[in-house]
UniProtKB/TrEMBL annotation:
Keyword Transport: yes
Name this protein carries in UniProt: Branched-chain amino acid transport system carrier protein
Membrane-traversing stretches: 9-28, 40-63, 75-96, 121-139, 151-172, 192-214, 235-261, 281-306, 318-341, 347-365, 370-388, 408-428
GO MF term (any one): L-isoleucine transmembrane transporter activity
InterPro entries: Brnchd-chn_aa_trnsp_Livcs
Top-level taxon of the source organism: Bacteria
Membrane-protein topology: Multi-pass membrane protein
Length: 436
């Protein structure tokens, strides 16, 4: 039985890291560090639990069940396919894929354009080239290790480490007192910020590509594929954690300066303070690489998944369609798409997290058929009602009931409901078993 070499495991981990590490992952930690100031350590610990822990667990669970749809079928046979399609659509062509092109344009390219340049035309030209490159890199999904792990990701890491090293040699300032949100309960605040990255959904998507690249190395044994996937997920999580620590410390050194509107401004301030105006070009390259690698990961995983559902439409055809769709949305309909896809993501994300946690403990209650449906469906009901309330649609009686639950002010009341229903289903399952 062939096993994965250490070199290939490292390259696979770098590839997986690059698929996770997009623009949002780049700008969240510096902003957290600048706002948390002297409370950066507990805030960072909370952030790492959710921003690194959940994605690593997601990769492990998808590897164990050999696919998101198989895991979701534990809830109900019909639910498995429906939920998998919903996640792939929401995290892929309807949200994240178009944004991988628009975010680097808005954050890094637009500020560099001369006065009088048409933003709309510039966006069209930029996204056309961006998605052409992404399409070319995605044409052979089993070659991602060569294209991402050996080239793009090392370049991205070198740039980030170079910025951090420059900040160590030329400190930008001392940590200041935290902003009000971080002054009390910084660990919880960091936990919530990491939760908002929603990278656990990406982990559920990327599992299919990780397995494909492992098999492309000549590893065919299912147990070895699962074991290698888990190892790669853990190592990718470690790399993520190290980069998050660097970026958070970078932001912490700026906590005595005026707080920007977002993490992109914080990072730009740091880079331009270290490298002058040429730092804007460094920023542009970092954003481009981070978003390109994530875009490739999303295109390949979504194309692989949908081609597995449609025998008459192959991977290449799905890849072309999804690329062109993302190009169109990024130029002409991103705001409208976001108004739909973001609420949908907020509704399904808690269910995805519950599925991941249930999947981890599956051997302990494999014979209990109540746990998955009761826990996941109740979580879904609460998350839907919570998001409807956020959108201004209140359900008399139910909305007020949810508002009285613990963590309701953080839109996390689903946690209490999930724990309660998990416990109830355990009790009911044992009673049912004792009657036999």
């Amino acid at each position: 039985m062939k096993k994965c070499s250490k070199k290939n495991l490292i390259l696979l981990s770098l590839t997986l890291f690059s698929m996770f590490f997009g623009a949002g992952n780049l700008i969240f930690p510096p902003f957290l560090g600048q706002n948390a100031g002297t409370q950066s350590l507990p805030a960072l610990i909370g952030f790492l639990i959710t921003a690194v822990g959940f994605p690593v667990l997601g990769i492990a669970v998808v590897s164990r069940f050999n696919g998101l749809d198989v895991l979701a079928q534990k809830v109900h046979a019909g639910f498995g396919l429906f939920f998998a399609v919903l996640i792939y659509l929401s995290i892929g062509p309807l949200l994240a894929t178009p944004r991988t092109a628009t975010l680097p344009f808005e954050m890094a390219i637009l500020p560099l354009l001369p006065d009088g340049t048409s933003p709309q035309l510039s966006l069209l030209l930029f996204t056309s080239v961006f998605f052409l490159i992404a399409w070319l890199l995605s044409r052979n999904p089993s070659k991602l290790i060569d294209r991402l792990g050996k080239l793009l990701t090392p370049t991205l890491l070198v740039l980030i480490v170079a910025v951090f090293a420059a900040a160590l040699m030329h400190p930008l300032g001392q940590p200041a007192l935290p902003q009000p949100d971080y002054a009390s309960g910084p660990l919880i605040k960091g936990f919530l910020e990491g939760y908002l990255t929603m990278d656990a959904l990406a982990a559920l998507n990327f599992g299919i590509v990780v397995s494909l690249n492992i098999r492309a190395l000549g590893i065919d044994d299912d147990q070895e594929v699962m074991s290698t996937s888990m190892k790669a997920g853990c190592l990718a999580g470690l790399i993520l954690a190290v980069i998050y620590i660097m970026l958070t410390l970078l932001g912490t050194s700026l906590s005595g300066m005026p707080i920007g509107a977002n993490g992109a401004q914080t990072l730009t301030l740091a880079v331009t303070s270290l490298f002058g105006e040429s730092g804007r070009w460094v920023m542009a390259l970092i954003f481009l690489l981070a978003c390109m690698t994530t875009c490739v990961g999303l295109l390949t995983s979504c194309s692989e998944f949908f081609s597995s559902l449609t025998p008459k439409i192959n991977y290449s055809q799905w890849l072309l369609f999804l690329t062109l769709f993302a190009l169109g949305v990024s130029n002409f309909g991103l705001s409208a798409i976001l108004s739909i896809s973001v609420p949908v993501l907020n509704m399904i994300y808690p269910m995805a997290l519950v599925l991941i946690l249930l999947g981890l403990g599956d051997p302990l209650y494999r014979d209990n058929r109540l746990i998955y449906p009761l826990t996941v469906f109740s979580t879904g009901v609460v998350s839907v009602l919570t998001e409807l309330d956020t959108l201004g649609l209140r359900i008399p009686g139910l909305t007020q009931l949810l508002e009285n639950l613990p963590l309701a002010s953080q839109s996390l009341s689903w946690i209490c409901v999930a724990i309660a229903m998990f416990g109830l289903s355990l009790i009911l399952g044992r009673r049912k078993k004792s009657r036999r």
